[in-house]
Amino acid sequence: MNRLLTLGLVVAACGGGQTHPNLFATDWEDDNGASITGVQQKIGGAKAPTGADVAVGVAGNSDKVVGIPLAGGTAWSFAHAVDVRPTIAGSVVVGEGGGELFALDAASGKKLWTRQVGAQAMRGAGDDGKVTVVSLQSSQGSLLIAIDREGSVVRQIETKQQLGVPAVLGGYAFVPWSNQYVSVLDLSSGDEAARILVRGKVSRALAVGGGIFFGEQELFRFDDKIKGASKSQATHIALPQRELPGTPSLMAPGEEKLGPVAGALDKTRMYARPTTTDPIAFDSQRFYGTYFRLAMAFDTSTTKLAWVYSNKVDLVGGAAGPATFVLCDEEGKVVVLDAATGGVERELSLGGPIKSCTAQADGLAASTPQPPPPLSQQISAALTNRDSEMVSGQRLLLRELATLEDESVTKTLVDLASNPLTAPLLIADSRTALAARRNGAKAMLEALAKHYDFLHDVLLSPPVGPIAQALAAMKEKSAAPLLAAHLLDPADTDDDCKQAAAALVDIGDATAIPTLKQFMTLYHASADSEATAAAVVSSGQALLNYGGPDGRKLVDATIADPSTIDAVKSRLSAVEQQLDAQKSQAKPPPSKK
Amino acid sequence: MNTKTKAFFLAGAMSLATLASAQTGVTQPTPPQVKLAPTVGADLKSGDTGKIRQALDEIRLAGKAGGGAFVAPIVELLQRGVTNQLAEAALDTLGDLEAEPASAMIAQYTIHRNLRVRQAATKALVKAKGAAATKALVRALSDQDGMVRGVAANGLGQIKAKSAVPDLFLALDHRVNEASGSIGMLCAAADCEQLSTRIGKIPFDVVAAGIEQAMFRPDVGDDTKIKLLGRIRELGTQEANKFLRETNKKWPKTASARVKQALDQAVQATGGGS
């Protein structure tokens, strides 16, 4: 402490440190971890202090920073121009606007210091509880400033390199750059004490759970294996491969400044919290994805959907905490969810609408969540949102829903496929999933009882075709009269009609015979489409199966009728012949006397 | 006369008849009877699309008086099932023959998958009337196609299907505007007043079409008519005034003096001094 303070005073007196010529040199030769091992020895067992548990938003006309402690407490507000999204570094919130950097105490919002930086834009910051190191984009490349709690500059480094977001530990700044290096700067001397060559894209250093990690889309841990980083031997973890809407990323490139207003990329993000224990993993075996109003949690080992949280408005930021997942929405609501179940632990407010949000949950203790509904209901709720922006996310959820055996899933699929307000893509997906269901017959039969009815606002026919396929596979014979009724519903699509007729071949009975006859009569000469023609043939086949002599007579008459469509005629003949052949084979051979 | 010539003549004759009917509001006299070829009956049963089509055209031209005897074979034709084109022609013919015994068969075609066939069947059913017509036309009010719904709504008034009034109100509230006129043709006192409550909720000209029908019906009481006029008078708009003036102009001299007086007052009250 004393050493740092002394250095700080000296440096401040000299105008804030100087750039050392060897810093960020590109002719560096891999030292096989020798220098970083030396730094580790100097740091000893020091851990990054636990960061503040807080959500911070940009509010007003980007002229206000608001914050709320996640464990509960008073929301705070700090009026200042905001040109760059504030960042939370340990227990400090660092922001920039109007050419001025400012640091606030994350828990209270109290101003710690300000510093004029002109047109340079902040990329990010790190903090070890004593010194805050801020990376800024400058016209020449980058500027790195280390500022102590009193606001004194203890180190200032300019470089042509594009620096990423730094972390600080034990008087050393860990500065990623050039997407592959992490230079470890001794803040007391300004020297590059060590360098790590990382075999993966690295633009951010971050303190999590007392540890330091580097990376962007995958994370490398600063531990005793970091010396082997250049040989790909560092402890590292990546998010499991998983289809997610909007192809979200874990973190934005550290060399880019983030604007004060959240965009689509902030609303479609991934979150995960690496562990400091071995073997490295993601906390609670969870990784998370947001998609506008949805937040989804996945199991890291199976990548299966664990839970879904549906919000009323877009989610603009969040953080994965220990056994928790924190989200903030554009109305300023902050919600703390249980990582395991998605149950709501607590809801907080930033006091009003926000432009963007940054959160950190580093030591937040999990509390008892409200028990969430079953996953099928969570997904169903997420699918009821009619915003067309949500369709990609909803399609993914629908596929997840279809994998669940719960009978209520069938009803949800029926409802989605029957609702004219459902997005067309979701209707198509629901129909596909419905055809493959093998339970939920009750919901299917209830749906079949409905027909298009303009006056009673039933403006979309039920998904007759997929239901027919499913019920036929389930041998649900009680569906026969309902399916037959759909043969005579002109509002059903040709394909639905075809599937209904095909199902009646297998699960039809005497109740369907009059309708099958009427259908054949009406369409044997007038089928407008291949699907309707196929339905006529299936109707004939059904009549041959269980229509008795009268059914056979009608089929024969249809085949003989010159007005019968050729395709119908030939296929009906083939069906009849095949049936006759089967019957003759089934007859026992005449006994020899 | 070949098929093309017949079709042209048929279309022309029908257009003129429709025009004349619309202008005068009077049913046209029966057209001169066309002598049917002796093969017409056989042609209908021939299975030959061309011959059937020709026979249907001839029967249609012959009208109710000349072609009435062929209703049964045309129904048989539809019962067997035909191409969409022939189905349309057969339905048109049955309609022109006002073939009431065919209504059950025509009704079956009001649920046909082919839209043109469905439209033809609905139109034919309005002309044929018959026992099956009301049920089928009420069902057609819920059809996907706006034209089918419109024809059904209009037709229910024409066939005097009083039992369909609640369905017609439902249709009117679903913007099937043709329902208004039919409601006006069929409404009992309470229904007529209910129609007037739609003023301000649906376009005036739509409601007015129904109210006009009710105003000139002798079986609708003076009190009801005066109430209807009162609703329009309350509206006080230019289009209300125009409607009242036109109704006043058409009001029969022998009709109710009370209603006439109410009309005069309503015209004056909505005239805005002009």
Helix content estimate of chain B: over 70%
Count the beta strands of chain B.
0
Q: Evaluate the radius of gyration of chain B.
A: 22 Å
The largest β sheet of chain A comes out as: 4 strands, antiparallel
Number of helices of chain B: 16
Give a short account of the largest sheet of chain B.
Answer: none
> What is the radius of gyration of chain A computed over CA atoms, rounded to a whole number of angstroms?
33 Å
Quaternary organization: heterodimer
Strand content of chain A: 25-35%
Largest beta sheet of chain A: what is the strand line-up?
3-2-1-28
- Annotation, overall tally of beta strands of chain A: 28
> Structural class given helices, strands, pairing of chain A?
alpha+beta
Question: Which pair of chains forms the biggest interface, and how many residues does each contribute?
Answer: A-B, 24 and 27 residues
Tell me the span between the first and last alpha carbons of chain B.
60 Å
How many H/I helical runs of chain A? 15
The mean pLDDT of chain B is 88
Unreliable stretches of chain A (pLDDT < 50, length at least 5) are 1-16
